[in-house]
């Protein structure tokens, strides 16, 4: 899928201990982030956690109060944006309104004083890459939001950037286009092999496109790991909650495992010590059967590829009035659960994180 | 818009439709009356001017005035003031527009990008001249000008120092509020911040950002600011007269004392010219039909959508 010669172009990117505060409030509080050559890293976090600030520091649009930015082993902390050779795609539509799609893509090449014929062929190649060869002579106002973002991507890639920076490029688009374009961004990034930082607040998006996902909170990187690891082995409460759906089940920890809902689950590193705790269990790590009922069905909903059943466990030994639990079941089984049914909910035993109760 | 304009179906039932129709009809009627009154108010003096310049005192049709006016040679020898005034006014228009643009466009862009907290003070300063009568402006400016003229004469001699062209600096102040409004509307219509950041990430320095990204997208706003300034400068009398400089209006005034018909004829021509300029303005920028729209067009659109 990827062309090896192109992949060799990716460079390492190192953000080291970046700090930036606005009016005394830190937006970045010692962010350290390393990107391997050709890697796509997604920065994920709730709105206001400092993702954009991190990306802007890397782009040179914002100066960090302290810390360093290095690209390909070279310290670029003090280098202005226009000398950094970074391709950017913004959340807001950013095509130059007075230029056509092709002229937009040629803009960076024009500034680099490339010959007209070279600009033309490079622009055509880039627009072809994003699937817009037929829209070359359109202005931004003649294109849909998705098309505009594609042109913006082509424009950013045309200059053969050292690093590609994407700041929530899909959040202004509607759901279907969003999924389509995110897959395409992944395809193109793999094809050109440019080291890429992708900022988003949408966990599904981050998990779908990235080699590694970094979860941020209040200017601090909480965990950075491959999507499946982030999902199955979150290091703390915040990551577990933010990535995917999690049930908070009261349990009792003893000797590296916990008793939950009458079953036992292994615990991940970083879990709370012995005693009562809250165990974070994914919906697919719970099962329903009809043996010894310990919960009541509240609702059952069909979601296409799978189904979701919400149950309220009876007040038990481990906890008092427990919160409703979400259980994932096969879509074929959803018909057999209706509100009011008595069921038995159990953990499958997959490893989970236990945090201090409360 | 509440009801659907295509089907005429109201959203809230039939009685509303009736009321709406009545209101609409009343609005249309009111609009026509206003337009008619305004047109008459404008046309009567124009007609008076035309009538006065095409008849001799006995009431006979006499086109000598207009023949003189279109004869460039004759008019510049018979009425040298007029030629001087005209040249001075054209020069002033050019200087005023240039200084205004160089001053205003980069400043306003910079304030928008980097100093949003300064946008209120800048707006206040730019609109301030609206509240200052020309006569007060002259009183304030006269020490500045006498000082400036002294230095200019000292360095460049009389012909430069006493030139009418320096009035352009006062005119920049005069046109500031109108130009500010136009350019501000233009800047609001584009996302300057994102566009300039995109350009910079592609390798553009600040001058390139201004020249290749901001200015082209402010085309309409810059044009309308320029047209307004030209119209204002060509019509300016008070300041020039009080500073004893001869621009077009002053020349016409002087002429009016000796030959009223020529003076009025020139007045008519310059009025019609100003109307044409303003009229042309509301059409500029519709060629490409997007990016920035002139404040006039925006206003018209708003009216359509009510
Ligand atoms: N130019 C700025 N001036 C003041 N505060 C800012 C500025 N930019 C960002 N912030 C603050 O820094 C924090 C992080 O912002 P940002 O990086 O944009 O978050 P995110 O992109 O994750 O939503 C926020 O609390 C925001 O209010
Ligand atoms: Mg952001």
| Continuous helix count of chain A | 9
Order of helices and strands of chain B: HHHHHHHHHHHHHHH
Main interface: chain pair and counts: A-B, 29 and 22 residues
CATH topology heading of the largest domain in chain A: Rossmann fold
The structural domain count of chain A equals: 2
Reported CATH architecture of chain B: Orthogonal Bundle
Principal-axis shape of chain A equals elongated
- CA radius of gyration of chain A: 24 Å
What percent of residues of chain B are in strands?
Answer: under 5%
Intertermini distance of chain B: 6 Å
CATH class of chain B: Mainly Alpha
Quick check: average pLDDT of chain A?
A: 90
CATH H-level homologous superfamily name of chain B? MetI-like
Question: How many beta-strand segments of chain A?
Answer: 20
The helix content of chain B, as a percent range, equals over 70%
- Indicate how many domains the architecture of chain B comprises: 1
CATH homologous superfamily title of the largest domain in chain A:
P-loop containing nucleotide triphosphate hydrolases
Family (chain B): Belongs to the binding-protein-dependent transport system permease family.
Transmembrane segments (chain B): 29-50, 82-104, 124-145, 165-183, 220-242, 262-284
Pfam families (chain B): BPD_transp_1
Main location (chain B): membrane
Summarize the structure.
The complex is a heterodimer of chains A (about 350) and B (about 300). Chain A has about 350 residues and is α+β, with helices and mostly antiparallel strands. Chain A contains 9 helices and 20 strands.
């Amino acid at each position: 899928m990827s062309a090896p010669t192109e992949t060799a172009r990716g460079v390492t990117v190192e953000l080291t201990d970046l700090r930036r505060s606005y009016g005394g409030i830190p937006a970045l509080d010692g962010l350290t982030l390393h990107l391997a050559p050709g890697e796509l890293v997604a920065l994920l976090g709730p709105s206001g956690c400092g993702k954009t600030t991190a990306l802007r520091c890397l782009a040179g649009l914002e100066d960090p109060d302290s810390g360093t930015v290095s690209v390909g082993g070279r310290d670029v902390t003090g280098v202005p944006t226009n000398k950094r050779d970074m391709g950017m795609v913004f959340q807001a539509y950013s095509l130059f309104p007075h230029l056509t799609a092709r002229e937009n893509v040629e803009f960076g090449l024009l500034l680099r004083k490339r010959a007209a014929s070279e600009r033309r062929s490079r622009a055509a190649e880039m627009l072809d890459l994003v699937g817009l060869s037929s829209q070359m002579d359109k202005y931004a106002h003649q294109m849909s939001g998705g098309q505009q973002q594609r042109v913006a991507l082509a424009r950013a890639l045309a200059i053969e950037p050292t690093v590609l920076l994407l700041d929530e490029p899909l959040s202004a688009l509607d759901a279907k286009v969003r999924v389509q374009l995110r897959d395409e961004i992944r395809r193109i990034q793999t094809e050109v092999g440019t080291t890429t930082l992708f900022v988003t607040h949408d966990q599904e998006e981050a998990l779908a496109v990235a080699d590694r996902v970094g979860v941020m909170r209040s200017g601090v990187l909480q965990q950075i790991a491959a999507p499946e690891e982030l999902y199955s082995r979150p290091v703390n409460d915040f990551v577990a909650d933010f990535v995917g759906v999690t049930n908070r089940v009261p349990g009792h920890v003893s000797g590296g495992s916990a008793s939950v809902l009458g079953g036992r689950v292994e615990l991940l590193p970083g879990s709370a010590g012995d005693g009562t705790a809250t165990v974070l269990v994914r919906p697919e790590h719970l099962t329903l059967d009809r043996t010894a009922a310990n919960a009541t069905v509240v609702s059952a909903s069909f979601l296409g590829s799978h189904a979701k059943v919400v149950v309220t466990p009876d007040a038990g030994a481990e906890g008092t009035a427990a919160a409703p639990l979400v259980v994932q079941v096969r879509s074929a089984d959803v018909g057999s659960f209706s509100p009011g049914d008595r069921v038995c909910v159990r953990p499958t035993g997959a490893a989970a994180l236990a945090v201090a109760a409360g | 818009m509440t009801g659907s304009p295509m089907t005429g179906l109201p959203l809230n039932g039939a009685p509303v439709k009736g009321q709406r129709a009545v209101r609409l009809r009343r609005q249309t009627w009111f609009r026509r009356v206003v337009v008619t009154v305004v047109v008459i108010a404008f046309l009567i003096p124009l007609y008076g001017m035309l009538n006065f310049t095409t008849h001799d005192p006995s009431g006979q049709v006499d086109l000598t005035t207009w023949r003189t006016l279109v004869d460039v040679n004759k008019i510049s020898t018979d009425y040298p003031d007029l030629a001087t005034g005209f040249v001075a006014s054209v020069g002033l228009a050019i200087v005023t527009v240039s200084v205004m643009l160089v001053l205003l466009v980069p400043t306003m862009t910079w304030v928008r990008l980097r100093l949003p907290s300064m946008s209120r003070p800048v707006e206040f300063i730019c609109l301030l001249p609206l509240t200052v009568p020309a006569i007060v402006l002259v009183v304030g400016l006269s020490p500045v000008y006498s000082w400036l003229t002294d230095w200019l004469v000292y360095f460049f001699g009389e012909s430069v120092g006493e030139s009418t062209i320096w009035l352009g600096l006062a005119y920049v102040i005069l046109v500031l509020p109108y130009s500010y409004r136009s350019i501000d509307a233009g800047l609001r219509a584009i996302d300057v911040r994102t566009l300039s950041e995109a350009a910079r990430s592609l390798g553009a320095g600040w001058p390139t950002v201004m020249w290749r990204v901001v200015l082209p997208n402010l085309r309409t706003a810059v044009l309308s600011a320029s047209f307004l300034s030209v119209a204002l400068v060509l019509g300016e009398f008070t300041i020039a007269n009080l500073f004893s400089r001869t621009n077009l209006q002053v020349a016409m005034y002087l002429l009016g004392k000796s030959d009223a018909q020529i003076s009025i004829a020139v007045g008519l021509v310059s009025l019609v010219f100003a109307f044409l300029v303003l009229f042309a303005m509301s059409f500029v920028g519709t060629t490409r039909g997007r990016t920035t729209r002139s404040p006039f067009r925006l206003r018209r659109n708003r009216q359509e959508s009510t």
